[in-house]
Write a structure and sequence with these properties.
Blueprint: E1 30-34, H1 39-50, E2 54-59, H2 62-76, E3 80-84, H3 90-103, E4 109-112, H4 127-155, E5 159-164, H5 177-197, E6 202-209, H6 215-221, H7 228-231, H8 243-254, E7 265-268, H9 272-277, H10 288-307
Parallel strand pairs: 1-2, 1-4, 2-3, 4-5, 5-6, 6-7
Helix pairs in contact: 1-2, 1-8, 3-4, 4-5
The structure holds hexanoyl-coenzyme A and NADP nicotinamide-adenine-dinucleotide phosphate.
NADP nicotinamide-adenine-dinucleotide phosphate binds at residues 34-35, 37-41, 58-61, 64, 86-88, 113-117, 136, 140, 164, 166, 209, 211-212, 214, 216-217.
Length: 308
């Protein structure tokens, strides 16, 4: 995967990749990251592990998970448990969490990161295509959250949940309707449970990231690379996000430094969302010569209208 060149202004906005929280912030804690074998999930698992947590990573592909787990544990020295589990299957989720609990303890730090997605006009989606995305994203997150939530409540232990959503939960997006519907559902699930479960010491939040180049996302959302270069025009910061930037925000939101935050969705997107909301932001690539011409035309028409 070749990396996408940044715009010149990005030199003002370096991506800070080292952990911002103090060493040992998650020492003694058990974390669970779904989709932790690749992409953002792998980056967040690494950050939590480097901050002291024992981490369980879940996904469907055992070989991918095993490879990541041994990479992470040899880099941080902390325990990383790889478990193959399809989050759509509530029985498998239960068995997997049983195993985590007996091997490394009950997770109190939880990231619902696993997702399925692909671009497609909605009229080309079969019922099963729609169901597949909603099952992974929404029902998968619910399976993990409900199972662990019940265990934490029963154990009288607090916990902190985070879900990775997307910026199109705010206004929707064409060609990813099933993902948009499911991710909005996840945000509302977390907001709703934040209201219910504060009394049990449980917080739930979301991060809505903008574009970050991962193989899993970009191969399914821009398979030919046709749209990726235009993407930078919509990011005032002038570059894509980096996995470690999400991992730092995630670590903060899951830690006690954010213990007053619940039911929140934090957008981290290089300014894409506000840019998309500005009706006239498309003028961004207008040259000075074009502005000279536009200004002259506007002034001439002002003068004409004054004379009427
Ligand atoms: C139309 C499609 C399709 C496509 C699959 N289907 N791909 N329909 N266009 N491109 C249909 C299939 O025909 C089938 O329906 C149904 O979807 C399920 O397909 P399977 O291949 O059987 O499903 P499965 O093996 O479970 O794989 C799930 C998957 C796959 C979602 C299709 O892509 C996957 O494993 N994804 C996991 C990782 C991922 O998606 N990462 C990207 C996350 S990025 P029928 O009717 O034929 O049975 C993200 C946000 C990015 O979420 C935001 C960026 C800014
Ligand atoms: P990714 O590498 O494809 O991550 C998705 C992960 O989910 C994979 O590790 C995959 O592993 C796992 N997964 C998929 N279906 C699963 C299932 N049924 N059960 C268990 N695990 C499953 O893509 P990514 O870019 O890192 O995405 C991570 C998260 O960030 C997703 O929630 C995505 O929506 C979100 N996001 C990404 C971007 C971006 O630009 N990259 C932007 C906004 C939001 P297996 O295939 O082995 O199961």
């Amino acid at each position: 995967m070749s990396s996408i060149p940044s715009k010149p202004q990005s030199k003002f906005f370096p991506a800070m990749k080292t952990p911002m929280l103090p060493k040992g912030t998650f020492k003694g804690k058990v974390a669970l990251v779904t989709g932790g074998g690749t992409g953002l999930g792998k980056g967040m698992a690494l950050m939590l592990s480097s901050l002291g947590a024992s981490v369980a990573i879940l996904g469907r592909r055992a070989n991918v998970l095993e490879k990541t787990a041994s990479e992470l544990s040899s880099s941080t020295g902390n325990r990383v448990l790889a478990l193959s589990c399809d989050v759509r299957d509530s029985d498998a989720v239960k068995t997997t969490i049983d195993k985590i609990e007996s091997d490394i303890g009950l997770p109190t730090v939880v990231i619902n990161n696993a997702a399925g997605n692909f671009v497609s006009p909605a009229e080309r989606l079969s019922p099963n295509a729609w169901k597949t995305i909603v099952d992974i994203v929404l029902n998968g997150s619910a399976n993990i959250t409900l199972d662990l939530g019940k265990r934490l409540i029963k154990a009288g232990q607090g916990g902190s949940f985070l879900a990775i959503t997307t910026t199109y939960t705010f206004r929707g997006s064409g060609f990813v309707a099933s993902s948009a519907a499911a991710k909005s559902g996840v945000e509302n699930m977390n907001r709703s449970l934040a209201s219910e479960w504060g009394r049990y010491g449980i917080r739930l939040n979301c991060i809505a990231p903008g574009p970050i180049q991962t193989e899993g996302a970009f191969s399914r959302l821009d398979p030919t690379g046709r749209f990726t270069n235009n993407m930078l025009d919509k990011l005032p910061i002038g570059r894509l996000g980096e996995v470690e930037e999400i991992a730092n925000l995630a670590s903060f939101m899951l830690s006690d430094y954010a213990s007053w935050m619940t039911g929140e969705t934090v957008v981290l997107d290089g300014g894409e969302l506000p840019f998309a909301a500005g009706e006239f932001n498309q003028f961004i690539n207008t040259t000075n010569e074009e502005w000279d011409f536009l200004e002259k035309t506007i002034r001439e028409s002002n003068a004409k209208q004054k004379k009427k």
